[in-house]
Write a structure and sequence with these properties.
The protein has three domains: 3-87, Orthogonal Bundle (Arc Repressor Mutant, subunit A), CATH 1.10.10; 89-148 and 260-296, Periplasmic binding protein-like II (D-Maltodextrin-Binding Protein, domain 2), CATH 3.40.190.10; 156-257, 3-Layer(aba) Sandwich (D-Maltodextrin-Binding Protein, domain 2). It has eleven helices and twelve strands. The chain has helices at residues 3-16, 19-26, 30-44, 60-88, 101-113, 125-133, 196-209, 222-232, 240-245, 269-287, 292-296; strands at 49-50, 57-58, 91-96, 118-123, 139-144, 151-154, 156-159, 187-189, 216-218, 235-238, 249-252, 259-266. It has a five-stranded mixed β-sheet, sandwiched between helices. Helix 5 (101-113) links the parallel strand 3 (91-96) and strand 4 (118-123). Helix 5 (101-113) packs across helix 10. The longest helix has 29 residues, at 60-88. Residues 1-59 form the HTH lysR-type domain.
Amino acid sequence: MDLVGACRVFVHVGERGSFTLGAAAAGVRQPVASRRVAALEEHLGAPLFDRAARRAQLTVFGRDMLPTARRLVALADDLGEEAERALRRPVSLAVPDLCTTLDLAHLDAEARSHGLHLDLRPVARAERRSLINAHQVRLALETVPADEAAWVVPLGLAGTHPPHTRGVRLESLRVGREHIEAPGRRVWITPEDDVPHVRDRLARVRDAVGLRPGQVVLAPSVAGALTEVLTRDDLLLCSPRQAQELSLDWLPVRDAVLERGYVLAGTDDDAGARVRAHLTGALGRCLGARTEREDDA
């Protein structure tokens, strides 16, 4: 039995002294109202209305039960309103500061179509973990190795010259003996990729193909790395989406598999489940993650 629904009908009928008016106020048909009251009487163990009277007249037992039924209905209404407010409360989500304004707007619009309200915080990688630890955001996208990730973003090298091949090998950056005094082109790693599963792997390939230690460099910011790319013909380690945004030409690295991985982390399991259920695809597009079609290629 729907106890709250039955009490709602009982209250409306009891206050109006009419099953017809009470049913209308409760938003149900009169036969439904009669069945609900009968079920409630059976549940409580005594009649609530005098069936011999011409109108819906409360019995003594019914008058005793009416105040408690009112409180139950009021509490149920309060619960529904509180649940609606909780669902409307924005879910604070820390995302990479590499996400573009347009991508974030599309993500927010997709969330709203599912009844989710997001408070998006674009911040650097290290700050995302700090915000979670300090309980300043409910959720955050954290970087992890690709084999642990929900979203995987391919990384390659981007520069200012149009590509003439389908990929680039790091060994092609090796400084020849005839140019021993030349500094050599550098590969810049931005703070988002300053993690062991990217940085250390790239360093191992650097050493294996004979590049100089200074040819793989950590950048303090994307803007700083981009300046070096534009002025010195260096290369930026980034995703295809980033390269497009920065008007650079992107190529995959042929002698190393370099990827960013992301998972959704946080302290709010309910919000996390809702985001995963409705926004997995939208988050992937925002991050520039590899699609299933690309995985199969």
